[in-house]
Amino acid sequence: xxxxxxxxxxxxxMLLPCLMVYVVLAxxxxxFTIWLxxxxxxxxxxxxxxxxxxxxxxxxxxxxxxxxxxRITLIxxxxxxxxxxxxxxxxxxxxxxxxxxxRTLTPILVIPLGIPPITVGLIWRFLFHPDFGAFxxxxxxxxxxxxxxxxxxxxxxxxxxxxxxxxxTPLVAFIVLGGLLAIPTEYVESFMIDGAGFFxxxxxxxxxxxxSNLVFAIxxxxxDSFKVFDQVWMLTQxxxxxxxxxxxxxxYRLGLISWNLSxxxxxxxxxxLIVIIVxxxxxxxxxR
Amino acid sequence: xxxxxxxxxxxxxxxxxxxxxxISIALISTLPRTVPTVTVxxxxxxxxxxxxxxxxxKTETVTVGLGTPATVTVTRPITxxxxxxxxxxxxxxxxxxxxxxxxxKYNLKGVTIKMVTESTPTSLFIRDVLAPEFSKVSGINxxxxxxSWDEMYRKTVxxxxxxxxxxxxxYIEQDIVGQFGVLGWLEDxxxxxxxxxxxxxxxxxxxxxxxxxYYYRGKLLAIPFEAFxxxxxxxxxxxxxxxxxxxxxxxxxxxxxxAEFFGAGTKEPGVYGWVAQAASHPCLWFEMxxxxxxxxxxxxxxxxNDLSHVYFNNTCGKKAFRLYIELxxxxxxxxxxxxxxxxxxxxxxxxxxxxxxxxEFFGTIFKENPAxxxxxxxxxxxxxxxxxxxxxxxxxxxxxxxxxxxxxxERKIAAWLFIQWVTSKxxxxxxxxxxxxxxxxxxxxxxxxxxxxxxxxxxxxxxMKAIREGTFRGAPPTPTYDIATTTELFTTLHKAVTGEIxxxxxxxxxxxxxxxxxxxxxxxxxxxxxxx
Lengths: 288, 532
Description:
Low-confidence stretches of chain A: none
Number of domains of chain A: 1
Distance between the termini of chain A: 42 Å
Oligomer: heterodimer
Structural class of chain A: mainly alpha
Strand content of chain A: under 5%
Largest interface: A-B, 33 and 34 residues
Structural class of chain B: alpha+beta
Number of helices of chain B: 19
Low-confidence stretches of chain B: 1-5, 32-83
Radius of gyration of chain B: 29 Å
Shape of chain A: flat
CATH class of chain A: Mainly Alpha
């Protein structure tokens, strides 16, 4: 017993630095955010601070612009994650089944993953800017079509989704490939012997065998897409109008431009809640 | 065999030559007698009055500054007698010596001061030239951080709100003075100016013409280092090429006709009829309140001083906004993503025939694209004769240096020395020569004509005229920052720009948003000091 107790104490002692880091970097900021969301820090320099209860949450939940931002972010996230997972699954399976495809695609797919999101935004800006975009210019001069995401909100919205898919589909493909490589080859061989085609193998074998990898990819991509900021900020700055003002951009403007820290804190906690709920739901649905 | 020249021919030639010689001599004698001009450079180290005596002509007295090299141009035949009235040796040391001595006295060597500023041409010059010079002389490590406008405010507000000491000096725009003043976010510089020990004896604040814009309720909150107008800029060369004459009183109707004439890059390849700030960004609001609405008779941001009502959505306000949106047809296709930076960049490449531009950009335009020197002209912004019934016509912008009130006294003194270094006559002269912006009247009058001649734009003459006539104003002390950065406000206006809603509807919505921000402000802080 005495030995066990000593071991436990030692374990606790060894964990202490990690716990301290966790408390300082996660729990204290979280507590501070909760506190901010319950007071009236609505303007820069606010000095008469007082407790306002759930007022900030009510304001955010009844603010049409906040709700609009949440709505377009959810659509953005669902569409981009769905396409990324589907494409990633197919590409990953192709890479698994063919060594030559894997050799060809691996270096190509690594490129978007290795570029920081802000640079991705910049690259797409140079490609699609209505004034100097290379692709826009090519399209205009060859087909007469004019793409102008700076004025057409739907184009800007679509462009940000395509940009996300372009950057993150490779990640899903690699996660899928990693999962597939762990499948015993006998399973695949037996499917082959039974004459199952690629689509059948994909749906009846691969998807089932790498379910946990897919859950991981979906949750990871969901969380990431939901908080998209850098590349969209670089490309459209949330515009035109509010067409691409995703919730992170709205949050940034609310908290760090308008300095309405309390409402921003309330919104960030609402986002946190949404991400936790969705992640749990996705996990349960896929594991069922 | 060649035929010998006959005697007759020779005689005729000689006669012609003689006649020509006589005519030439006669003509020369009728010309005014020219005298060679001799320029005599002299240096007057210790006289306050220089007397130049021209023998048999007259006596001229020229007053020159102490220790200032002077040049006297005289004509021959004269004799020059230079006599000097002995003056006392300079009563104060040079700025360099003084800064060095004060830094030593207060033991400031090794102290680090940090300034956060918008990445304007002037700020970049301070960062690259003036700050290193100051550090070298004083031993104080002056770091100037230049960032975007949004980031500059984010850092400034974060520092001041948390009462931290991350930055010692902030870039204080003229339009933020009222709001920061109410919040007590800046050190009052009046006592520093009055302190004879901490202020260089040669430092003349009265010479800084933009200084009055930086006072709030009797407190001086910043010292300006750049001041410039937001003016109408046009391609002089293209106007001349197509025989377009600028009318005496510029009107929006004229601007529209010019925009239509040049079209969307159709007349001159790559040159658009108009350019403007039209991004989904506070710049869109600034474009309206600073430049467009005043020319339609809507002043002080269209907000009453008691913050109780707004009038920028009246008939004239709506007319102005509709015109602003209409003109965007003639701007580059990406104009709806343009902030002031892109407007400056467009003029740098000569991509617009006209537009409203912060004159600070002339610094970068001519530096980055010297081919544009001589191709731009400037004028007061156009007006709408039906709506504009007088009052200021445009925006007098500028940036100053304010001190963080939460830093130590030692750092405040170091910061004050740096501010003087930058805004002294010497510093401002360097800025004017390199960046085309000036805050001292003496420098403006001395260098303005020379710079106008060099760049061919005539901006400094216009600036002098604007100062004399008082036709340009800074922003009113409304809670400008709170209003301008309200996302809902500028995104609503931008929806009209992209055609999502009508301009009239956008302005009505904007009026409600501004009123709600103003009401909250009034509730907490009361009414700001009246605009004067």
